[in-house]
Amino acid sequence: MRTLSFMFKSGLAALAIAAAASPAPALAGYPDKPVTMIVPYPPGGGTDSVARALAARLTERWGRTVLVQNISGADGLIGAKHVLAQPHDGYTMLFQIPQMLLWHWTMPEAKVEILKDFRMVSRINQTPMTVAVHPAFPADSMKELVQYCRAHPCSVGTATTLGTMIGKQLMEELGVDNAIYVPYRGGGPMMTDLLGRQVTLGLAAGGTALAQVRNKQLKVLAVTSKNRFKLMPDTPTLKELGYGVEMVTWYGMMVPKDTPAEAFDAIAKAVRSVSDDATLLESIEANGAEPVFDTPAEFQAEVESELKVLGPLIQKYPPTN
After folding, report:
1. 234 in a domain, yes or no?
2. 212 and 259: one domain?
3. What number of CA atoms fall less than 13 Å from residue 30's CA on the CB side?
4. CB–CB of 123/275 below 8 Å?
5. What was the pLDDT predicted at 2?
6. Could you tell me the pTM of the whole model?
7. Are 78 and 71 in contact (CB under 8 A)?
8. Helix (H, G, I), strand (E, B), or coil: what is residue 223?
9. What beta strand segments (E) does 153-228 contain?
10. Rounded distance between C-alpha atoms, residue 147 and residue 74, angstroms
11. What is the per-residue pLDDT across 85-100, written as a single tens digit (0 to 9) for each?
């Protein structure tokens, strides 16, 4: 879709002011009606917050309303199925997280797979998992955590199936064989128990942990990203400490695989065009994440790479939640 450019000379200044007062009208072609963005998780969470900020920017960009609809359940599967059940015309998009990469193994009967059924538009942001403990916990480093957990019963709180797998991998890397894994149905309940010292440590998403760290209610001993997390620059990565655990979680935009090229290209172009919007970037950082905004090809390559890692991982550490 071509964009309108209001680069008027002085003789048209009044017209420029009037045009700036309201969204630019949509051109012929996609989109010529409202667009719906499905968030397959409950309202109020990080995915919902960032999705709504993105939807607002796309509404301004297109001059067409972009609605956010929350359809939660079954680890995001219900919302994804809803998208696939709608016409594949680009007017129903999916805003997802890496949890769906596991469906191939955890819910094969659902017959929904990310690469088979969806085409990647762009990751919007990413954040690492954090190894988080209560401020009063008697360890201020991963080395001290290992010493403690080898000498005492150690419980690991996780909020997703993927998080539990990473927790098991981490404990094996640390040489801790007496860990108890406590799966939760979300980051909120896990954080409540971690702050209440009901679990020894939690694998919390960076965004979930960041606010508590800033309030000195939590301390983070390491992050799971390849490079240091920009919002926690003093916190080491597990990789640099010598542990082979690496994982980030992302929010990404995708559409059904057979979405028409005109619509797909318009969506990808629009997402790229708002990637430097200050309000959107502030929303991403407020949720404890870093902006990504990669190309469809880059997003596709990232998904393919993660699937190759998850295959052996899920066979070694079968999911229990």
Report:
1. no
2. no
3. 18
4. no
5. 39
6. 0.81
7. yes
8. strand
9. 154-158, 179-183, 201-205, 219-223
10. 37
11. 999 999 999 999 998 9
Give CA angle at 191 (185, 192), nearest 5°.
Answer: 95
SS3 content of the chain, % helix, strand, coil (to 5): 45, 20, 35
In this structure, what are the phi and psi dihedrals at residue 87, rounded to the nearest 5 degrees?
-55, 135
Q: Tell which of 183, 208, 223 closes a domain.
A: 223
pLDDT of amino acid 16: 37
Q: Check: CB of residue 50 under 8 Å from CB of residue 124.
A: yes
Three-state secondary-structure class, residue 163 = helix
CA distances from 78 to 88, 110, 120, 226 (A): 17, 10, 19, 31
For residue 241, tell me if it sits in a domain: no
The DSSP 8-state label assigned to residue 139 in this structure reads -
Identify the segments of the chain with pLDDT beneath 50: 1-27, 321
Give the pLDDT confidence of 229-245 residue by residue, as tens digits.
999 999 999 999 999 99
Reading the block at residue 275, the tokens are 């990637």
Same domain, 83 and 14: yes
